[in-house]
Amino acid sequence: MMPSAFASPPAGDAPLSAAQLAEAFTLFNRASEELSEAYNALQAQVAQLSERFAVLMEALPAGVVVLDRDGKVEQMNRAAGLFLSGNVVGQDWLTVAAALMPTENPGERSLARPEGARRLAVSETALESGEGRILLLQDVTETHRMRLAAERNERLAAMGEMVAGLAHQLRTPLAAALLYTGNLRQPELGPVERMKVAERAIERLRYLERLIRDMLLFARGDSLGRQDFVVGELVAELTHTLEPLARARQIAFSSHCECGDLLVHGDRKALGGALTNLLENAIQATAAGGRVNCEVRQGQGEWGKEVHFIVQDDGRGIEPDLQARLFEPFFTTRTEGTGLGLAIARGVARGHGGDIMLESTPGAGSTFTLTLPLLPAGAQT
Questions:
Q1: pLDDT tens digits for 23-50?
Q2: Domain check: are 229 and 350 in the same one?
Q3: Domain match, 210 and 298 both
Q4: d(Cα 367, Cα 359) in Å, to the nearest integer?
């Protein structure tokens, strides 16, 4: 027999009385009022926090740009608008950032302005929700200028500390050149002897010229004449120049470039000089029958793509206590060295945003690696 739809409720489920309903309704109203009051209080707090956040954003000297998960500008403050020449809310950040040219310093960008280029340090932080990112733009133009001035002052200070040693380095070859040229006045010298004396005098004068040139390069630092050049062409030029020198010393010289078509933006002459110095040092440190190799590879560094110029020899190597001083100005282990070649080479590398690293084992050779970040064509410095 089917149960009736209007059957009486089972025992224990007796209907609430009117008093109980009234009490429940009262409790509901009270809870609703408390929730409304809490909600209104939260809204007031949110409004207060939003107001404070807006005031803080506008007061910040740094630019703040908030991106959504699609990379579009969702919010920005007044300072960011000044940097980016107007309100760019709603625009794709990659399009906006095209005006910010990379520089030799990772994390810094150059921004063209009618009054002169400005440097911005750009840092990025992802939101914990994963729904976007926050970009911080800081004007570091004056800091960059002070950094360049400080680096130049350090170079000049290093030269000042070595004045006595430098005077000795200048006096010795100059005295030798004067002695040789004085001998040329002797009437009893034959043509052959006179030619030998003249060649020795010219050799000493050329050494003086090289020493003075290195001093000027070190004091001036990296020059600013930069352009795009092909890596393979530079390696071919170095090979053409250094291979005969190595062959004359009975040293096998080889070069290999994995990225010959790669374009590098920088001072080609300064970089060529730095690499020539590394290769000449490798040849000088290698005995007859040894090998010197120049290899170029493209790699990935902490801040992006890099190019590595690797100069390796199987010569006598460098003692650990000398490795730490090898890049010091005027420090040299060679009687004919000026002590500025490696200091200049490292200065050139760092002037391009890179560096030179050394790995050496006494008796097993040395490896110098000059690393440069790859900058887009036309990148400003």
A1: 887 888 888 888 888 887 787 777 666 6
A2: yes
A3: no
A4: 5
Same domain, 198 and 215: yes
Final residue belonging to a domain, choices 106, 139, 172: 139
Q: Among 248, 308, 283, which Cα is nearest to 366's?
A: 283
Q: How far is CA 245 from the centre of its chain?
A: 33
- The residue type at 30: R
pTM: 0.50
Same domain, 353 and 319: yes
- Decide if 37 is inside a domain: no
pLDDT digits (tens, 9 = 90+) for 251-275: 999 988 887 678 888 888 888 888 9
For residue 338, which of 280, 296, 288, 381 has the smallest C-alpha distance? 280
Q: Locate 71 and state its tokens.
A: 């990379």
Tens of pLDDT, residue by residue over 51-105, are: 665 666 665 678 888 888 888 988 888 888 888 878 888 888 888 887 888 776 7
Same domain? For 120 and 162 the reply is no
- For residue 252, the surrounding DSSP H or E stretch is strand 252-257
Outline where the chain has alpha helix (H). Answer: 18-59, 78-83, 93-97, 141-161, 163-183, 191-220, 231-248, 268-284, 320-323, 341-351
Both 252 and 342 in one domain: the answer is yes
Token reading at 104: 């030799």
Structural domain span for residue 109: 60-139
Question: Tell me, what's the pLDDT at 377?
Answer: 44
- The closest alpha carbon to 81, from 66, 98, 65, 99, belongs to 65
Which of the pair, 134 or 176, is modelled with greater confidence?
A: 134
